[in-house]
């Protein structure tokens, strides 16, 4: 097993054969994250390409040494018997590229909590974290790969709160297919939602909320209410140029890769979102809503349109992205999980992000620097 650079075309073709991969593992994402140096790398079993990765390199201050970061990657068949050899091959490759450490984030579901379990956890005063509740499923493959990483010298930090450490370990997903692989109908998806969601979707329609797909020019309108949302919810918003770069890079790779949705009521924009799709996986990536006209339920209407479009496109999963695992009544993010659980989906825990220290003194200094930040 060896690793070497590949072209963007080889990279995309391999993702296409697999059916999907995280959009953070597409060649285009390197153009979005221009402050990092990006590279497409292939995993080869002899001459056969068996895995790919988008590697982002971040240089240490004043040193020509790099963190080699694979956000939500690499794209590998984790059921392969030679996963340990594949990861070691990448470490060997990264060392030649002057990396002091490697950070990976396998998008392999380890634990799964269904909507009824989450609702019970939220209602239970003695439960404060999702991890305190027995999952509805713990996957054997996730457990096997986790043990393989631990025995292979990889380390992970499972104490972090929120999203500060990188990509979120906990995500919320709505399956769009039955167990036999057939697509669910819109009626079935609606029936899976809680009463509040169904009521809000119906109210938005009755109030005359219209949801449409926008163009690049509509990103400015999305951004205006995104900043309004940031001020209301207390987070620092990204610049409009970030979304324009994202739009240009992702849609240059595939015209259907990124979309912007706008929910309007009597000509007023009340909610807006962006959606990203790679193969059979669709993500709700950014959302915004106005302080005015909240009663017309634009946020539910726009979500329902994205779910319907993802389903019509034959996607297997509609991904509402990150959640924190706090389910206590006073948890600052409790509203987020309550909103998402109303779709009838499930919370999934990936394996999280794992580091392999190539140069241990530099890696130790780097982790201390991150803690101080």
CATH homologous superfamily designation of the largest domain: Gcn5-related N-acetyltransferase (GNAT)
Structural class: alpha+beta
Strand content: 25-35%
Topology order in helix (H) and strand (E) letters: EHHEEEEHEEHEHEEHHEHHEEEHEHEEH
Under the CATH scheme, which architecture of the largest domain would be assigned? 3-Layer(aba) Sandwich
Please report the distance between the alpha carbons of the first and last residues: 37 Å
Radius of gyration: 21 Å
**How many structurally independent domains?**
2
Count of separate DSSP helical elements: 12
**What is the CATH C-level name of the largest domain?**
Alpha Beta
| Named CATH topology of the largest domain | Aminopeptidase
GO molecular function, one term: aminoacyltransferase activity
Pfam families: FemAB
InterPro entries: Acyl_CoA_acyltransferase (IPR016181), FEMABX (IPR003447), PG_Glycine_Bridge_Synth (IPR050644)
Keywords: Acyltransferase, Cell shape, Cell wall biogenesis/degradation, Peptidoglycan synthesis, Transferase
């Amino acid at each position: 097993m060896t690793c070497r650079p590949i072209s963007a075309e080889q990279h995309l073709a391999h993702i296409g054969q697999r059916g999907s991969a995280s959009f953070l593992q597409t060649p285009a994402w390197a153009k979005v994250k221009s402050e990092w140096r990006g590279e497409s790398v292939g995993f080869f079993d002899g001459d056969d390409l068996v895995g790919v990765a988008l590697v982002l390199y971040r240089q240490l201050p004043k040193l020509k040494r790099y963190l080699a970061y694979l956000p939500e990657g690499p794209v590998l068949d984790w059921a392969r018997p030679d996963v340990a050899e594949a990861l070691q091959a990448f470490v060997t490759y990264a060392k030649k590229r002057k990396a002091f450490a490697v950070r990976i984030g396998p998008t392999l579901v380890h634990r799964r909590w269904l909507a009824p379990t989450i609702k019970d956890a939220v209602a239970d005063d003695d439960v404060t974290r999702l991890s305190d509740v027995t999952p509805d499923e713990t996957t054997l493959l996730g457990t096997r790969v986790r043990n393989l990483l631990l025995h292979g010298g990889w380390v992970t930090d499972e104490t972090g709160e929120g999203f500060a450490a990188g990509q979120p370990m906990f995500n919320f997903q709505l399956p769009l297919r039955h167990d036999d692989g057939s697509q669910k109908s819109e009626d079935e998806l609606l029936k899976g939602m809680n009463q509040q969601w169904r009521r809000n979707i119906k109210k938005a329609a009755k109030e005359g909320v219209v949801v449409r797909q926008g163009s690049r020019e509509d990103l400015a309108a999305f951004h205006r209410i995104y900043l309004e949302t940031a001020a209301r919810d207390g987070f620092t918003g990204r610049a409009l140029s970030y979304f324009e770069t994202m739009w240009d890079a992702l849609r240059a790779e595939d015209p259907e890769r990124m979309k912007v949705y706008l929910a309007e009521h009597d000509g007023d924009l009340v909610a807006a979102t962006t959606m990203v799709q790679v193969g059979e996986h669709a993500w709700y990536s950014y959302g915004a809503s106005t302080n005015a006209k909240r009663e017309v339920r634009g946020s539910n209407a726009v979500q329902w349109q994205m779910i319907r479009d993802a389903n019509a496109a034959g996607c297997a999963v509609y991904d509402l992205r990150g959640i924190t695992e706090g389910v206590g009544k006073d948890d600052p993010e409790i509203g987020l999980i309550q909103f998402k659980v109303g779709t009838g989906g499930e919370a999934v825990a990936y394996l999280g992000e794992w580091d392999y220290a190539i140069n241990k003194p530099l890696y130790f200094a780097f982790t201390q620097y991150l803690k101080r930040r």
